[in-house]
Amino acid sequence: MISSLRGTVLSSSGSTVVLEVGGIGYSVAVTPQHALLLAPGHEASLRTKLIVREDDLALFGFEDEEGLQVFELLIGVTGVGPKSALGVLGHLTPGQIAQAIADEDDAAFRKVSGIGPKTAKLITVSLAGKLRVAPPPPRVRPCRPPRSATACATP
């Protein structure tokens, strides 16, 4: 398996990046937003998932472990292939995906090309309880001197 790549970005267009590692150019599918961040000539590091099909070897790249883990959960859902899973990650952050699943909001997934009502519902049902929703950031109220900063945090 190819679990990560680090090298120089040769090209970036649409949702594909070519990353040169050790003289070999690897074509990696990424979200369009991620492709925009990967400028040719610059170093990049990607977490990757290699998908092996009868007639194809495809690499899918992610900027962090969380994106990779959510991708792997999504492709485990019946009817969700790697391209659809990458499409979901192109529309929603891992945190938004976790929140949509926790809220049973299948409409969030129907916005993605290739995800219909049945598949969207199946995603929310199949992944229920498998993704943690990040807690909201702590509330902080403004301080007025001479109070200390620690006295301003609201539990």
TrEMBL record:
Residues 135-155 are annotated as: Domain III. Residues 134-145 have a biased composition (Pro residues). Pfam families: HHH_5, RuvA_N. Keywords: Cytoplasm, DNA damage, DNA recombination, DNA repair, DNA-binding. One of its GO terms (cellular component) is Holliday junction resolvase complex. Its main location: cytoplasm. Residues 134-155 are annotated as: Disordered. The keyword DNA-binding applies. It is found in: Cytoplasm. InterPro entries: DNA_helicase_Holl-junc_RuvA_I, Hlx-hairpin-Hlx_DNA-bd_motif, NA-bd_OB-fold, RuvA, RuvA_2-like. GO terms for biological process: DNA recombination; DNA repair. Belongs to the RuvA family. Homotetramer. Forms an RuvA(8)-RuvB(12)-Holliday junction (HJ) complex. HJ DNA is sandwiched between 2 RuvA tetramers; dsDNA enters through RuvA and exits via RuvB. An RuvB hexamer assembles on each DNA strand where it exits the tetramer. Each RuvB hexamer is contacted by two RuvA subunits (via domain III) on 2 adjacent RuvB subunits; this complex drives branch migration. In the full resolvosome a probable DNA-RuvA(4)-RuvB(12)-RuvC(2) complex forms which resolves the HJ. Has three domains with a flexible linker between the domains II and III and assumes an 'L' shape. Domain III is highly mobile and contacts RuvB. This is Holliday junction branch migration complex subunit RuvA.
